[in-house]
Amino acid sequence: MRIGIVNDMPMAVELLRRLVVSTREHQVAWIATNGREAVEACRRDLPDLILMDLAMPEMDGVEATRKIMAETPCSILLVTASIEANVAGVYEAMGHGALDAVDIPSVGIAGNASSQSARLLTNKIAMIGKLVRDAPSRASGRISVATDPSPQRLVAIGASAGGPAAVAKVLSAFPIDFGGAIVLVQHLDAQFIPGLADWLGQHTPLPIRAAQEKDRPQAGTVLVASSDDHLVFKSAQQLGYTSSPKDNVYRPSVDVFFESAAQWWPGSVIGVLLTGMGRDGARGLRQLRDKGHLTIAQDEATSAVYGMPKAAAAIGAAVDILPLSAIGLRIIEACGRPT
């Protein structure tokens, strides 16, 4: 892949440059020292991937991501000094379409990146490279319902690039007495899930927490897949994790969870597929529709990256294709009907 590097620190730029050219598969397309330069560089020469810092002069990584995804869509990996210290910026940038985030590799005694931190970054680059090759496309007042103490409705949500902001928008429509059980599978490393849950909690009155082994979906509670393994139903009510299929590049996989819900959940399911690169979730959404469940895909106009919803639309997996602002209300409408 041709990779652009955006960072205002010379040492960081040199570390990233060495990592990129350490394999014959990649080359440096250009280097920018701030977000403004990156936006202009993309207009001249669009790379396959951008390694984007967050804190920079003139224009930060969040605004640069927003502008690039609006004008010249490109895969963006956030590589910054501390993800933990920039949680809000990370999820805001992901809302604009950044694919993932990682701390910049630490420096060893010889001035090179330490092997463990370098391996984490290079693995993410390799994963995004596969997603780029497989992707079918690149981007372009509350209502109250009666609480069901024993949830018969499951709202299964899948998302990837641009997902945090899209999920926040959907959840913001739900009232505190929302009667459905909600499970979210967001393509994101397990270490970032606690931060994601906290951030999403600012947008909804519903409790949000990481899904654990043997958890049971509960009415009015959001469970978030929290492992690099796949979240699945292991019985009609009980969740768990599995490493199979091991060769699935999407971890955790939306397809795997949707298919598990179609097989095990005893009540009705509302499957929702939001913005994201690739095609994960399309097959599982189709399986839910084939079993008579309501399925919803985000439309192109409101998707940060119209890959996963497009793949679902292409195979007729979605009953409804809706703008993001309408999805939450559609779910509430469906949950308001008797099962």
From TrEMBL:
Segments crossing the lipid bilayer: none
A cellular-component GO term for this protein: cytoplasm
4-aspartylphosphate carried by residues: 53
UniProt keyword terms in alphabetical order: Chemotaxis, Cytoplasm, Hydrolase, Phosphoprotein
GO BP annotations listed: chemotaxis
Gene3D superfamilies from the UniProt entry: 3.40.50.2300, Methylesterase CheB, C-terminal domain (3.40.50.180)
Keyword Lyase: no
One annotated GO molecular function: protein-glutamate methylesterase activity
Subcellular location field: Cytoplasm
UniProt EC number: 3.1.1.61, 3.5.1.44
Residues annotated as catalytic: 160, 187, 280
SMART domains recorded: REC (SM00448)
Residue ranges of domain Response regulatory in the record: 2-119
SUPFAM superfamilies: CheY-like, Methylesterase CheB, C-terminal domain
This protein's name: Protein-glutamate methylesterase/protein-glutamine glutaminase
Species for this entry: Mesorhizobium waimense
Gene that produces this protein: cheB
